[in-house]
Amino acid sequence: MEMRRHNAAFCAPCFVHYTRQQVRKAIEDFEMFRPTDRVLVAVSGGKDSLGLWDLLLDLDYQVDGLYLGLGIGEYSSESREFARAFARRRDANLVEIDLPEAYGYDIPTGAVAARRAPCSACGLSKRHLFNKAAMDGGYDVVATGHNLDDEAAVLFGNVLRWNTEYLGRQLPVLPASPGFVRKVKPLVRLDEREMAAYCVVRGIDYIVEECPMADGNRHLGYKDSLNAVEERSPGSKQAFYFEFLAKASDLFRPLAIASQEGGLSSCVRCGSPTTGEVCAFCSLVERAVSLGPTRRRAAGDGAPVPDATAPDAPVPGATAPDAIAPDAMAPGAAAVAAGP
Ligand code: Q46
Ligand code: ZN
Question: Atom of ligand 1 at shortest distance to CA of 46?
Answer without folding.
Answer: 9
